[in-house]
Amino acid sequence: MFISYLFVFLQVVAFTVAGYANDPNVYELTPSNFDKVVRKTNYTTIVEFYAPWCGYCKQLEPIYKQLGKLVHQEGKYAVNVAAVDCDKDENKPLCSRYQVSGYPSLMVFRPPKYIVGDTKKPGRHVSETYNGERTLKAMWTFLQGRLKNYVKKFSTLKADGVQQWLDETDQDVDSRKKVLLITQSKAISPTLKSLAIDFLADYKFAMATATDIKAVTGLSFDINGKPVEIPVQDSDKLPLLITYNDETGEFVKYPGTKKDKNNSKKISQWLVDQNNGKLPHEGQLSKKEFKYYSKYRTGKATEKIVHDEL
Ligand SMILES: *[C@@H]1O[C@H](CO)[C@@H](O)[C@H](O)[C@H]1NC(C)=O
Ligand SMILES: *[C@@H]1O[C@H](CO)[C@@H](O)[C@H](O)[C@H]1NC(C)=O
Question: Which of 88, 188, 226, 286 is 20 to 30 Å from 9 by CA-CA measure?
Fold first, then answer.
């Protein structure tokens, strides 16, 4: 009787305490993990500096949790959604370092551009305050605009640069494999940008717009002095994702169904398979995800179970 009473009591407490401690998609940051999450990454990070007692923070909380879910669970975009509880003494140095004067304060941190083969020390992250509307749509639109773009865009497949890009032979400088997305869309999607960031060390990405699959049929490019045809059938539909296989000297087509073309995990797995099993530096298949970020998710879940067993 007492035990179950206590159990209900603990549950009520868990639901009324403001903050993100029980939310697997919003990373609670402290001085000891802040730089690791925010700066040692090619991801863009949004940080909410909050105080559990503040009314506007409570208003933002459910929306911010939705943002975390959208980014970390549904889309797996190259964005970290994080929060700092400025009411905790240990976090106060962080909050003053970022000159937080009111709650909630939202800041966005953008990584420096990574250049393959560049041995210079990379630049610093750029931070800015987010002053836009505190809606899911407004925040997400803003963050999409702050994703680093590593996808080269060609207006059409026949544009001058495509042939050259596919046949770039300077392997000493940049030996990454190439992925090309052929699509009807004119804008680079956040999914494609995110994949390019995860696989920055392994693949270079480009995108070319085409009206339909007929515009691709029979098209070939000269690679290493040989014409290589894009393998399409009439039954194929855009978007089409291809990579060039150096060993066979052919293009390989991502085999996913229409729905799989939005599944960044399946696409990531395919990219890993095409690269002899080499895992990406960041993202859902990376060691970093397993060793570090998943701790936020599963780690928090474990804490919950400990409470329940009381
Ligand atoms: C960005 O990605 C590259 C390639 O994976 C990696 O070497 C570099 O350390 C990353 N930058 C940061 C700040 O983590
Ligand atoms: C894939 O995602 C795009 C944009 O996010 C959306 O417009 C499209 O309907 C999705 N397609 C499928 C098959 O789910």
Answer: 88
